[in-house]
Amino acid sequence: MNTYANTVNGQPVVSDKTFESFNPATGEAIGRVPISTHQQVKDAIAAARAAQPAWAARPDAERKALMMKMAEVIKNNGEELAGWVTREQGKPLGGVGPDQVPGARFEIWGCEAWTQVPASLDLPVEVVYEDDTRRDEVHRKPFGVLAAIAPWNWPLLIAIWQIVPSIRAGNTVVIKPSEYTSIGTLELVRLINEVLPPGVVNTVSGAGEVGAWLSTDPGIDKVMFTGSAATGRKIAEAAGRNLIPATLELGGNDAAIMLPDADPKAMAMGLFWGAFINTGQTCACAKRLYVPESLYDSTVQALKELAEAMPMGDGFKEGMAMGPIQNKMQYDKVVNLVESAKAQGGTIVTGGKPQGGPGYFYPLTLVTGLKDGDRLVDEEQFGPVLPIIKYHTVDEAIASANRLDAGLGASVWSADVNKAKEVASQIQAGTVWINQHGMIHPMVPFGGVKGSGYGVEFGQEGLKAVTRPQVISIRK
After folding, report:
1. How far is CA 137 from the centre of its chain?
2. Distance (Å, rounded) from C-alpha 45 to C-alpha 381?
């Protein structure tokens, strides 16, 4: 079994201690990952610190050109990287449909696109005030060294979201991948280091202790984290002690609301993928669906037909739409929440029973008969389960959507866009989609409110978020 290396200052770095990475579809061990020592974390930060001034001093056009070369490297190695996503995270290699989404190849295409777009953006000097006596300009400066901590659900794509805007703005990065999905990210960084100067992007690997060393080190100037609210709070506390900023994307419990004029049959496919993309293991999935009484039965039936038609299995098999839950901890949580739903009076429309055999496979599951306050409604399941809740008035549905301490995304479904916008404006979420859910875009800012974190990524606003403003005020 191969042992994979971290990359620090452009060189491979191994450790005396390692851990195994497993394929969640088969349980097979697929490689060994270094457990970075505290000194290795410090060495990675020191390498990033040493490389940062020269990287920031490069002409903007040179940094842009190197990032476009990064995108080429990702594209040219796309099949290898997609294989690691399927082998390590579990999502199907190709997925379904003519566009082969939402599989591992789609994730790699996203890595390419989310590299090219920041490379195309500029942060020009802004003249914020000028009169006969003075001129005031805002210049954007890099923070310095950024710590990035990536999750296991979209391991390469979210790593790119953290890395690319940061280095585009002149920062350098030390990234720790999830211990569940380390190899693909280590390989991605190894490959992009073929075109980047040494020290611009470095990796450390291991469990939570390594992430804590990284995020609390005084040599870090900003932290970017995607993961659980519990860990996010610890990172926010450490950032506060060190007086550095953080961008925290802490997941959500997204509500989708169908308005009484919606067409369940026409909207079922969008609702389905809004809830079940990546087997429901996406922060901005629809995780609770509110439906008016008049549309309830037809909506449940339309989603049931789709759920029962979607093939689930090992992602290397052709035609799979769904893969496994990525790890046993999450699998057990999903099982526990479904069992609690049964105990609290929920009805299993389809699914609801763990599948036998190897791998963490759990069937697509729809649950009716639940209400606000039931665990499956109130707790983020992060898996292939959707509670469908009946409501009586639209105001009641809005109140239900807003009642939890989560505010990443939400969606409103209606034949009347203006009516949907009116409802959307009342929902407490960083993004509210209309007649779609989870449709992020590299040019559109994305981030949460309330317990879903703070700060934004993507687009011009995301690029500004990895810079600090410097005002130059000129007397005329």
Report:
1. 34
2. 35
Closest CA to 175 of 154, 144, 151, 195: 151
| 6-250+450-475 CATH | 3.40.605.10
Sheet containing strand 365-368, edge to edge, reads 347-350, 365-368, 385-391, 286-292, 254-258, 409-413, 431-434
Domain ranges in the chain? 6-250+450-475, 254-434
Structure tokens at 68: 């476009």
Q: Which of 132, 404, 444, 125 is nearest to 250 (CA)?
A: 404
- In CATH terms, the fold of domain 254-434 is Aldehyde Dehydrogenase; Chain A, domain 2 (3.40.309)
Confidence of residue 102 (pLDDT cuts 50, 70, 90): confident
In angstroms, the CA 259 to CA 299 distance is: 12
List residues with catalytic annotation: 249, 283
Q: 220 with 242: CB under 8 angstroms?
A: yes
In Å, how far from its chain's centre is CA 273?
16
Task: Quote the distance between the C-alpha of residue 150 and its chain's center.
Answer: 8
Kindly list the distances between the CA atom of residue 44 and the CA atoms of 48, 49, 353, in Å, as whole numbers in the listed order: 6, 9, 45
The helix-helix angle for 155-168 and 78-88 (nearest 10°) equals 130
- Do domains 6-250+450-475 and 254-434 share one topology? The answer is no
Contact 160, 65 (CB under 8 A): no
Tens of pLDDT, residues 391-420: 999 999 999 999 999 999 999 999 999 999
pTM of the model: 0.96
User: Quick one: which of 141, 137, 125 has its CA closest to 476?
Assistant: 137
Q: pLDDT tens across 299-336, in order? A: 999 999 999 999 999 999 999 999 999 999 999 999 99
Which residue from 68, 77, 49 is spatially nearest to 190, judged by alpha carbons? 77
What stretches of 229-360 adopt beta strand conformation (E)? 246-249, 254-258, 286-292, 347-350
* Tokens 């067409």 belong to residue: 263
Q: Count H helices, E strands: the chain? A: 15, 22
